[in-house]
Design goal:
CATH topology of the largest domain: UDP N-Acetylglucosamine Acyltransferase, domain 1
Strand content: 25-35%
CATH class of the largest domain: Mainly Beta
Largest sheet: 11 strands, parallel
Number of strands: 39
CATH architecture of the largest domain: 3 Solenoid
Number of domains: 2
Number of helices: 5
Length: 342
């Protein structure tokens, strides 16, 4: 069982240690579940009653709760307890997780001309195509596929059954969870005489450093230019990024978000679950889209946007939506008339 002393934790991650420096800590738990040898955290003051009832041996708190933990067995005071907790989980995972073992599994296939760093790990039944590059410290998980001339940057982890298509590029320190597909064909077809003629997708996908993509998400290759995810983008499970989309740095999308083709999204945006964006629009930096919101036009001002509207025939829906936009002004007119009548 892994164990760390509270003083060692503070020495490694920072913060002001209060209480017993030699308290052994063997796990991380929520306040309501933690025991005397667990470390927990309080990031939101509304959960202060849980802190008072918690049996946690060590609690990470902000400066405002310093007095509240003065009599506890151990505590660490940090300017940002939630950030501290995030970094604690990263450090803890490195201690208790499986050790990284470099090398190519005997059942893996590495085509001639591929460049696999000696300090990379290629898992069982994985495939690395001709001309592909896998950087130092990276993992290509079991049954994963790295296409011809694709590039996987340093310290990037592809979980099991991940596909990175030919000529696609994934940066350093990225995480692609199980079932992710990078570089499938974008949805491009030309109508002709009642059928669809395929448009070959000749671009690729470029993913910059420190990107994380959740399980079974898809990022399609571009039709001509590349689809791009800039540095620090975070995608949840079951997210779809269509061809030629450009997502700005540090934008995050929750589960089941769908972005249609050729849309350009700025930096530091957030998209709640099941939000969708139509194609060929632009969204500026620092825009926050609510759950299940359908974005049907460009957004040029930072801020939070949301709202849902019932499904209907297009003509009826358009008329109702136009009327809905006038409701606030109409309310003012009604109130003015009521005031006059009174």
């Amino acid at each position: 069982m892994f164990e760390v002393r509270s003083a060692e934790l503070a020495a490694r991650l920072g913060g002001e240690l209060i209480g017993n420096p030699d308290l052994p800590l063997r796990g991380i738990a929520a306040l309501e579940d933690a025991g005397p040898h667990d470390v927990s955290f309080l990031a939101n003051p509304r959960y202060l009653p849980l802190l008072q009832q918690s049996a946690a041996g060590c609690v990470i708190v902000g400066a405002a709760q310093r007095d509240a933990v003065a009599s506890r067995p151990s505590a660490i005071v940090s300017p940002d307890p939630y950030l501290y907790y995030a970094r604690l989980t990263q450090w803890w995972a490195r201690q208790v997780g499986p050790a990284f073992v470099a090398g190519v599994h005997p059942s893996a296939v590495v085509e001639p001309g591929a460049q696999v760093d000696a300090q990379a790990c290629i898992g069982a039944l994985a495939y690395v195509g001709a001309g592909a590059v896998v950087g130092r410290g990276s993992t290509v998980g079991p049954q994963s596929h790295v296409g011809a001339h694709a590039v996987i940057g340093e310290d990037t982890r592809l979980a099991a059954q991940v596909v990175v298509g030919e000529r696609c590029r994934v940066g350093a320190r990225c995480i692609l969870h199980a079932g992710v597909v990078i570089g499938a064909d974008g949805f491009g077809f030309a109508p002709t005489q009642g059928r669809w003629e395929k448009i070959e997708q000749l671009g690729a996908v470029r993913i910059d450093d420190d990107v994380e993509i959740g399980a079974n998400s898809c990022v399609d290759r571009g039709a001509l230019r590349d689809t791009v995810l800039e540095q620090g983008v975070k995608l949840d499970n079951l997210v779809h990024i269509a061809h030629n989309v450009h997502v700005g740095a540090h934008t995050a999308m929750a589960a089941c978000v769908g972005i249609a083709g050729s849309t350009r999204i700025g930096a530091h945006c957030t998209f709640a679950g099941q939000a969708g964006v139509v194609g060929h629009v632009q969204i500026c930096d620092h825009v926050h889209i609510g759950a299940a919101c359908a974005v049907t036009r460009s957004i040029t001002r930072p801020g939070s946007y949301g709202g849902m509207f019932p499904f209907d025939e297009n003509g009826v829906w358009d008329k109702n939506a136009a009327t809905l936009r006038q409701l606030y002004a109409l309310r003012g007119r009604v109130r003015a008339l009521e005031s006059k009548s009174n």
